[in-house]
Amino acid sequence: MQSISIQPFEGADWRDGMGPDGLSKVALRTGATIAATAAVAFLGYAAFNRATALPSFARQTGQPCMACHTAFPELTPFGRRFKLGGYTLGGGEGLEDGKPPIAMMLVPTFTHTARNQDAPPTTDTHTNNNLILQQASVFYGGKIYGNLGAFVQGTFDSASGHVFLDNTDIRYADTAKFAGVDVLYGLSVNNGPTVQDVWNTTPAWGSPYLASTVAPQFGPPGTQIEGNFAGRSIGTTAYTLLNDIVYLEGGVYNGMSYSMQQSLGQPCSNNGAWVNAVAANDAALNPFNNPPIYPWYGPGGLCSADLMSGAAPYWRVALEPNWGNHSLMVGAFGFYPNVYPGGQMGFGVDRYSDLGFDAQYQYIDDINAVTLKVSQIIEKQQLNSTFNQGIATGLGWPLITANGGSSNPTNRLTSFKASAQYVWDHTIMGSVAYFNVHGTADAILYGGSSLFNSPNTKGLTFELAYMPFMKGGPSVWPWANAKIGLQYTHYLQMNGGNVNFDGAFHNATDNNTLLLYSWIAF
Predict the structure, then answer these.
(1) What number is the average pLDDT over the span 442-454?
(2) Distance CA 39, CA 26 (A)
């Protein structure tokens, strides 16, 4: 297989496949699949990420998945340019041929934990050894018209039993040349911070790419950018890539109302207690959801999900030089939401400042692919509303707040991740990742799940996977893709402790999780 090199644009038009220095259309059509999943949570600070390589992208470009991915959803430099170009690169079969860019995905999983859970995670599962169809998704992934393309995902989550609008990114992109500078520019409308990002170091696309939805849900909170408003906000950002090296992006996010979230199938939860109530109006708005037991404000009950107050600024900068088989990215990003915690108004707002730093190195040749990643998000929390709600509850006010409150008016939370991945011959993948969340001790905010009033949690994740179709799918459907993997998560610390971390005789290692999965896209 011929390796793919990335060169500066120099006026290249990525929509028709014409590149710099007379590079042939065949070479530039090597855009295959794009990562498609979202971070919605892991370890309690992000329940699990949904990701896949889309056969509709492969069919549209006429290329195998290895063109855009080392091991999906990990993107190559070319895969990142495909996404920045608006998902519109052709070369295969598309709308012009009467082939709409539709794809589907199934993710069956088996989960085993070191210790049986205290109760089954759902009404249809057991306290351990659960085999479920974890996720089923339908995608629109590819060109809409001209320079406009989209990635839209609708998902059925079997753990919660509901259908909802998952990761969505609709973008327009074009190229130009200004004062001797090659410019790719675009506009993205998406439904969660970093959904539009092209590096696998940001929350929406960072590791772990898959985690069990029926494993124990102990664990630390996440920073606001790590999924708190994933699928529950609308963002508009403008971006540009200068000389194929300097990336700049800026925009704002606005939170969805409860009624809008409900109409899109989003469950009402934010690591908060679910209220046991049947929302009759939800059954009418979401007939595919079964059972329709979502706690919403109004006739159906109480919703504990956070609401965003006003517009939240977002920015992203990165430098990514590419030379030969090497690629290096160094970047930073920020997100600044004002939040009504628990959706409770009348106590002011919580103000958050999320500042992230990330870096990624890749080496890719015909046989070997190495990806090294590191990221750190530092969050400053000015908890005006949360703190005031804690005081109100402590004074025994008749008002029952949706948020438990906090002991401190200001806190800090830091999320650190590092990972290394190796792929042999586009077929066998092995990886190891380290995660560490630590922050200010808070008796009210964390006391319910931590004997030490602490969010501090760290651990390791090991993964091995087999990908039989990265070079091309079976003859009956050459655009199909699959990934069969084994993942093991080992906890070094949980909520500030190792033994009896919650006062209920749970140890950190009790939550060690073995996950066997199969990722099938067609």
Answers:
(1) 91
(2) 34
